[in-house]
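fold description:
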Amino acid sequence: MAANGDTPDDIKNNPALAGLKIPPTGKASRAVLLVTKTLLFAGEGYGGAPILRAYDKATGAVVAELPLPGAASSKPMTYMLNGKQYVVLAVGRDTPAELIAFALE
């Protein structure tokens, strides 16, 4: 299991926790998830950073961290076109909505 994102600053900088090494705990956000055969895609969603991460399902390691132009606002989906796989999701809440597609290598 892996946290979806870093630890919020108000926790990392809390004086009561001074001197402790706090691993990533994730943020209170509405995560959007997509599971494929070998990967788990997780966007932080509203309340989190505008990032889509790909995790190796077997190890939990982050294999990609992709910046988004806004918060993830829909669940990702995947499709194949001409032998190439794509992941697409909608972003935007405080910004105009967009569909963002990534090609998998």
